[in-house]
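Researcher: Before we compare anything, I want clean individual predictions. No alignment, no superposition, just each chain on its own. First chain goes here; please echo the sequence and then give the structure tokens.
Model: Echoing the first chain and its structure:
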Amino acid sequence: MNSRYDLIVVGAGMLGLAHAYHAAKRGLSVLVVEGGNRACGASVQNFGMLAKIAQAPGTGLDRAVRTEECWHDLAAEAGIELNSCGCLFVATADEEMDVLRAFMETETALNQDLRLLDPGGLMACAPAVHTDTLIGGLWSPAAVKVDQRSAMEKLAAWLSRQHRIAFLFSTRVQAIDAPNVETARGGFHADRIVVCAGDDFETLFPEAFANSGVRRCHLRMLRTVPQPQDWHLGPFVLGGLSMARYHSFQQCAGIDELKQYLADRYPACLEHGIHVIACQEIDGSVTIGDSHHHGEPVSSEQSDTVDQLILDYLAERLTLADARIAERWTGHYASLADTDCLILEPQAGVRLVTMTNGQGMTHGFAVAEETIELLL
């Protein structure tokens, strides 16, 4: 293995691999150093949702569109399945439906293929939803799901095979003094270094992270046992809690009334930062989540409470064929208020790049492309 490269990337998660991809496309020699034997953080603990519909017009939407283009460019070659399953926002109250109607008049909606649905239309999109309690919804057929549990490994293998990117797994980076990178397996050198370490703020350049105000967000998530073969969820399913959270809905008429309705109807969900998404995986299981707790994770006792709040909210909107929960976990990612991505320059030629909105799958390729262009 060489000791000198044009670019060294620390971290083999979504952002790290995206930087390696764009650098290799520009002809740079690249080394990726990953502390684990594979990516195991936020890049694999999510829903695999390319959340274009969640973006407000501007940088966020532009990055989401560009990132989706990149996924489509490489997915087939890398053996990564992209499922155009669609996205369904369901409404149980007039306040939710009012916001969905207003959303249809926004720039985001006018540039996408979206449809308002009555209860019968909801059933056609997702037969598992409760048409007796739902009054309507919003359907986006273009929403894409990535198989988040395997995508990072497949992407890394393809980058190694197709673009001759070098990888060092199970190797901790101990120190960086550009252009030198010291690891547990020796020293390496590069004029450009990008650190994509997710929410690890303590190992490399802790002062820079501390001064930025970034903090860790913990999320409770669940996954069911595989559902029967004749049961299919279809699209991502979301409700009013997600409308109140996503940037794309914030300028809609009626959003304040919706938030007040949610505060009255679901105060415990708001206390725990819950907005509920359900999606079906390749093996038939259903991933459900999530909550948002900043600073310390919830206790085990609180976790049970939060999990039940999530499940109860979902049960009001759809019925699982088999509701047994096979997995529960607390995910984590970097978080910084009113910021989608944190980019720091602690040394000349070094960038610390961290997604701070939990949407690395949606924005990662575009953010990495921008960073590589600046470094060059």
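Researcher: Okay. Second chain, same rules.
Model: Second chain and its structure:
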Amino acid sequence: MELDREDELVLNGEFGETRRMMMEILVTLGKVFDAERMVPIRSAQVSGASYKTIGEYGLQWIRGLDARAAVPAILNPVGMDRDRWREMGISPEFAKKQVEVISAYERLGIRLDCTCTPYYLTITQYGDHISWSESSAVAYSNSVIGARTNREGGPSALAAAIIGKTPYYGLHIVANRKPGLVIDVDGAGAHDASWYGALGYIAGKEAGNRIPYFRGIRPDRDQLKALGAAMAASGAVALFHVEGITPDSRVFSYDPKGLETIPVEQKEISDLYKDIPVDAVAIGCPHCSPDELGAIAHLLEGKHVKKPLYVFTSKAVAGNSRSFVEIIERSGARVYADTCMVVSPCMDSYLAVMVNSGKAFTYVPNMCGAASRIGTLEECINVACS
């Protein structure tokens, strides 16, 4: 790799051991993927924030670092709402360790927004080079915003945050953002985000790490979020195109000749909507947008939940949507920030959880040890209230 003079000094330890280690991570990554140089980034998003997922060894590693982020950097969801963890049933022992993780990241200059939807904080725009690690955030930033990021691991995203650069390879290069297969969808009719999550669950298994190009659908932003999050979870999709919708779909002069084409029928999607008994309902994976909180509030107004109903969002979105949050919580449901159903131990006691997200539908069985059921937002609310 070609390094500038300052990068070489960092790699030689002239700016401290932590920055040397971070540069070494990036240089090694660049060599593995044949990157010729580094590229400056506008922002970073760092995963590995929940004590549930990183454990004691991860905590000790972060604690041993001594540097500050060089660019705006956001933290992924942690294992609890920082203000309401007792209410969530989180043990004091877990809470103590989680606070230590958060404090360790704060000392490194990472912003404690604790969200998987950093794009709601407007820290990136079309064409920006960034270094994000949460899979659904990567899919959204690449596909819906048109920023440029690879699907980073927690250490490489943290390294990029501290150095302010990342290796120039993969999806940072426009030529590598071309579609690799076509997915023709029988998408006639209006659908909610859960339908796009179910479509993404199917499409991700077909695509793997290839870049899909969708035809036959007209999703809005929340539906695009659901589609990309599900594909990132069931496959390894970091970028997708939707004909006439996503920005890069207009960059490439698309020619389907030579690309594998996979049809997805309505029945394949509807078959995922199986009616199994559940003992809790969870919404907000990825974190809810203001519009989604508004829709939940509308469906819950004047009702009372009979099953635990968890709604997850970022602290910033919750703070800007207080009227919706108040309506939701009057029903007995709870809106939690900083965390989500996948990385919090609060969901581990349930046998079956209903979700409206293809990502959660994929992750809940392995991460929470519970059966998962997918349904529309309206179905989720009806089940919680019945």
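Researcher: What stands out in the second chain?
Model: The CA atoms of residues 183 and 259 lie 10 Å apart. Additionally, DSSP finds 14 helices and 14 strands in the chain.
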